Amino acid sequence: MKRAYIYLHIAVLLAGFTGIFGKLIDLNQIVLVFYRTLIASGMLGVILLFLNRKHSYKFKDILRIAVTGMVITLHWIFFYGSIKHSNVSIGVVCFCLTGFFTSVLSPLFKKNKFDKYELLLSLLVLLGIVLIFSFDTTYRYGILLGVIGAFLASLFTLLNEQLIDKYDIWDINFYQILTAAIFSGIMALIYKTIDPNLVVIPTKIDWINLVIFAFFCTVLMYAFMLMAQREVSAFTVNLSFNLEPIYSIIIAMILFHENKVLHPTFYIGCGLIVLSISIQMWRLARMRKKNMVLSSKL
After folding, report:
1. What is the number of domains present in the chain?
2. What is the pLDDT averaged over residues 63-72?
3. What's residue 286's pLDDT?
4. CA–CA separation, 19 vs 185, rounded Å?
5. CA nearest 161: which of 216, 217, 236?
6. What is the CA radius of gyration of the chain?
């Protein structure tokens, strides 16, 4: 379990840079997702060949994995759309609603009762986000895109949780990202017919950023996240990923000076989000300690 939490927080740390690259790379969000996943799927393909991992799957199994790949594609498009129509801080804080959506959707997927503690902690995150944005209506469109992206991220995590016990982690990652490359590529072609002025060829600096982005923030990040999900719940994964905005915001303040355009209530809202994460981590540690005591008595 300890190793799973280490994997999870490495994934969170890498995820903290995704919003930064979304701002640095000067491409439309759909084109950005296409190049990110195209490069990442190529890297994963090479890794799988090098490791000589051979697993045969039926078409229905690949299709099932591909569906989750389409969901994460849409999440990325809305997430980067949120950043490009507002800023990094706004986009990543909206992502914190993932925990709230998970606490609502998880019982529907697993057909069990609502966890009142998870729901209360998620509402604390929701309160923080409402507090942040109730005083700032400048980026309403970006906020809307971010909220939709958070819902899709929650849906992806719950769907993914059903896959990791049945299929190989690297295979899941490869097929999902390959699907994302194909799906986003088709969407980019459609968008190009609507808007002929759409830029589809990255600049030299964008190519460099895309390669770094694809390897560290896609291949490695999702590998660590999938390994962590073998032992921790979807809610814990999503709640831990609420730390992603903190990392992103700090970096964005340094690189883009976003602190100059943020309302003071933004920091109060972030404080509530951190409080929610801290309580959940304390609760999990207490439950684990209690289970260890019970096990020693048996």
Report:
1. 1
2. 95
3. 75
4. 21
5. 236
6. 19
